[in-house]
Amino acid sequence: MIPELAGYITRSEGKKFLKLRPEIDERVITASGLNANISLYIHIPFCRSLCPFCCFNRYLFNEDKARTYFVSLKKEIDLYIQRGFTFSEFYFGGGTPTILMDELVSLIDYLKRNFVVKRISLETTPREITEETVELLQKAGINRLSIGIQSFNDDTLKTMGRVFISGEEAKQRLFMAQGKFDTLNADFVFNFPNQSIRQFETDVKMFKDLGIDQATFYPLMASPHKKDALERRFNKVDFSREQRFYDIILKELDQVGYDASTAWCFSRGNKMIDEYVIDSDDYIGVGSGSVSIVNGNFFVNSFSLDRYAALVNSSRLPVVGWRKLSRSEHLRYYLLTKLFGLEVDEARFRERFHTGIKKALPLEILFFKLSGIIRGQEKLKVTKQGMYSVSVMMREFFASLNGLREKYIENQI
Ligand code: SF4
To answer: Closest residue (by CA) to atom 7 of ligand 1?
Structure first.
């Protein structure tokens, strides 16, 4: 009941948040007033095949298009440099960032020439992992490598359309990368139609046995059309099962020294996570279909590769949707992201918004406290019992974002 209520509230909030104006007043995208360094997310939207459940902006790999795209990316980053932005933490996501290793290495060199690079996180799929790729990524200075395993179960992988790799091969690829980076993460999906609780439990146990640094478990959060398509092909997406999956993660990983870094990410030791939405109050996303948040402005880049390239080639930011968040929207978004990171620091909130969190969001804090989701005073910590509610809230927020992605992809905005 509490998780559903928290999720419902987030869904309604997310729908408002994502009503965007097509034009942005570019003067609002300024580095002034920001902390010296904010995070940069870089989107590489090409894959060798397209998984049917995936809601990200991604296109079937075409070498010419991908090479042109890497040129556009550098131009877009230049536009931010001209506006005074500086970045030290970098997150590559996709799509498949390793799809053209020479272009990726050249882009990382370019970042190192222009910024003081502190940390780089990069995601890829197991099919991309070879000894050679791992070595190149190490040499390029990747600190955190995240591999989208999704499941070790061959039936589940088949249902997901990931026929290019078996669970056993995925395990071997993880082994290949183990110990080569500061943090190695494996991504998994739970509550996929036809995935049984038992299959998922086996996935979590196998992950534990491998002794990998970190795992991130994503609940299925398909956009409306993707969800309909999955339900036509398989079973209904049944959210009533979701908490049982989540409880398995808590039960299995708690016993063996994995700590929750977010509601979805569990690490051994102090590991880097890829949730720039938690690490940074503000971040810029570059690349087709990326989203950014800067000083209470939420904006999205064009999802069309042609439009994206045309805009950056004319020295314009490729932004096609913008919302100046109201103060309450901004405060709630901030609260949601920090809850997802399992701790809201009152002092940091005060420094950012010049008011106390209990004064700024009294009803929200009262609800989270009364429902047992958080406790504490100066640092509001998410309780173990509250973690599933936070997971539902974040799933609902991302599902709204996926709805927006779907609309922009379909209409090639
Ligand atoms: S899940 Fe990963 S590999 Fe599959 S289409 Fe999406 S981004 Fe590409």
So the answer is: 95
